[in-house]
Write a structure and sequence with these properties.
heterodimer; A: mainly alpha; B: mainly alpha; about 60% helix; globular
């Protein structure tokens, strides 16, 4: 079946903007020495470009197979990270905050899997449209054969669930300004400090409140600790992690658009 | 996604939710998120190409059939309006549903989104679903009676973030009160019994034809399941309908039974909802590319979970929007 051309073009634009933002995060993290999740931002950048190409013919510049291999590799990487976190979480020596990190990479792993599915399922989105009212997003209907439609449907449901979960947790993510304040505060909690505690003053306490802490948070807190022990306040402030809320926003938008593409393939 | 979670403080009543005051979802919040996810799915289905075709307008117009003039006339008017402004109106419809889904998931907009959900559902129930066919004799629990979208409204009301009865034995009673929630449950399932035993559903082959007819256009594996069930029912449609009515009666009574029994009833209801969704509703026709919504299966399950017995000493858990 096909999608609406104007909608596909609009979503492709959104994906390119998202990719550009994630690329800027990588650059800022690199040159500003700001903690960030480089692997997640890099995959989001590539994912945004690839999805834009799937949505709009004019933006395709690599064969589906190449993209599928790239996301397959990324999927293996994040699967390994998930497994590693699971193993670490079972260890008594692992701090509670680090245990909360378990499962943190599952959403990006899910997205990589969905990309591989869409690419291998014979999507020919953007190939000029195959009739109907759409021209920009022509999908191969019954993606990959009718036996696999249920897989696409399951992936779409999982992405919907993730988008809703992430939206609910959005306000649990600290603002960058709050993180800066927290990193300068004497009571800053380093990675490894127990998760059930509370901080009404946004002291960058990393909790297990349902949302896992990020690698960025860990590295940010670690840098904070190092700076406290002998560094300047300004250096600490500049090392605040890049906005977790914006990163979450990117993930939510990508998940919803990806789920839409999967639904079109049914 | 970078996640730096801060704080687990219970938000003071009516204070804006901040990172410091964010609380992990309790059972009610989880159910609200379930409703949000179904709205999100509904919205994405509404953006499908089929909904931008005349088929969508014809589908709306078709729900007027068999309804009294006072009900049918606005439906026909709406269908004509949609047909003439298809792209604009369908985009608005889909975007409203998207906003409701995201709005429920985003805590500061929870109440607005739930209220919008109720209003939108009631509008669609009339103008888009012809009151779910309850007045034209075609309603059946198997085809989504009393209209899937009406169940959205019902769930939204029961999940309203108020604590009129904080000690209610299930979430549905928290906002509406235990007795009102029990009455809602009983009336809802009694209505399902009524629809099941309508004369149009008490025919020898009606059930077989309905399930077999749903197989058209479905993936082969799903069509095979449906055809197999349809042939197993054969001409025993009346007996199966009566058996279904008995099961529905047990469900209706379940809410008045002890918590341990109610748990079993709720589990059974969820299983029944899943069977209806897969076999009778074929996932709402989603796999054919022409489904406007997931139909009533997931909503029946969600509705049942609202009545899952809570622990007796459970404190009024932190939730949002209060």
């Amino acid at each position: 079946m096909t999608g609406q051309t104007w909608l596909a073009d609009l979503l492709a634009g959104v994906m390119l903007l998202t990719a550009a933002y994630c690329l800027s995060r990588l650059a800022i993290a690199r040159f500003g020495k700001r903690p960030a999740e480089h692997d997640v931002d890099a995959v989001h950048t590539v994912m945004g470009v690839s999805m834009a190409g799937m949505l709009t013919a004019g933006l395709r510049f690599l064969p589906n197979g190449v993209w599928a291999v790239l996301f397959g590799i990324a999927g293996v990487w994040f699967a390994w990270k998930v497994w590693r976190d699971q193993v670490a979480a079972r260890s008594d020596a692992t701090p509670q905050a680090a245990r909360a990190h378990r499962g943190h990479d599952v959403p990006i792993l899910l997205m990589c899997g969905a990309m591989v599915y869409m690419l291998l399922a014979g999507t020919s989105m953007g190939s000029g449209g195959s009739g109907g009212s759409g021209g920009g997003m022509a999908m191969g209907g019954s993606g990959g054969g009718s036996h696999f439609t249920i897989l696409g449907f399951a992936l779409a449901l999982a992405l919907f669930g993730y988008a809703i979960w992430a939206t609910d947790h959005f306000l649990a993510l600290a603002r960058v300004s709050a993180l800066r304040v927290g990193m300068l505060a004497p009571a800053v909690a380093l990675a490894g400090v127990g998760g059930g505690t509370t901080s009404a003053t946004l002291d960058a306490d990393i909790t297990q409140s349902g949302a896992a802490q990020s690698g960025a948070a860990q590295s940010g807190a670690a840098q904070s600790g190092a700076a406290q022990s002998g560094g300047s306040a300004s250096a600490v402030a500049s090392a605040a992690p890049l906005s977790p809320r914006l990163a979450a926003g990117c993930s939510i938008v990508m998940a919803v658009v990806m789920a839409y593409m999967l639904v079109l393939m049914l | 996604m970078s996640e730096i979670a801060v704080g687990q403080v219970r938000p003071a009543s009516r204070e804006p939710i901040t990172a410091a005051s964010w609380a992990a979802p309790d059972w009610r919040r989880s159910l609200q998120l379930g409703l949000a996810a179904i709205w999100l799915l509904d919205a994405v289905l509404q953006y499908q190409s089929f909904m931008y075709s005349k088929g969508f307008a014809q589908m709306i117009g078709g729900t007027a059939a068999g309804n009294p003039h006072v009900i049918a006339s606005p439906i026909t008017w709406n269908a004509n309006l949609v047909q003439h402004h298809l792209v604009l109106l369908n985009t608005i419809f889909a975007t409203i549903q998207l906003a409701i889904g995201i709005g429920i998931a985003f805590r500061p907009t929870l109440k607005v989104a739930l209220a919008g959900s109720v209003l939108w559902s009631l509008g669609v129930w009339w103008f888009g679903e012809g009151l779910g066919g309850i007045l034209n004799g075609g309603a059946s629990p198997l085809n989504g009676a009393p209209g899937a979208v009406l169940i959205y409204a019902l769930i939204a009301v029961l999940l309203w973030p108020a604590d009129r009865d904080p000690s209610a034995p299930f979430i549905a009673g928290r906002a509406a009160g235990t007795n009102v929630a029990r009455a809602v449950w009983a009336v809802f399932w009694a209505a399902q019994i009524y629809f099941t035993l309508q004369s149009s559903n008490l025919t020898a082959t009606g059930l077989r034809d309905m399930i077999g007819g749903m197989a058209s256009g479905e993936p082969s594996w799903l069509a095979a399941i449906q055809n197999h069930v349809a042939s197993a029912i054969g001409s025993n449609g009346i007996a199966v309908s009566v058996a279904l009515a008995v099961v529905l009666a047990v469900i209706a009574a379940g809410v008045f039974l002890p918590a341990r029994v109610l748990k079993i009833v709720i589990i059974g209801t969820v299983v029944l909802a899943a069977l209806i969704w897969v076999i009778a509703q074929a996932f709402g026709g989603i796999l054919t590319g022409g489904g406007t919504d997931p139909n009533s299966g997931p909503l029946l399950a969600l509705f049942a979970l609202l009545y899952w017995p809570l622990a007796a000493n459970r404190p009024a858990a932190a939730t949002t929007g209060e």
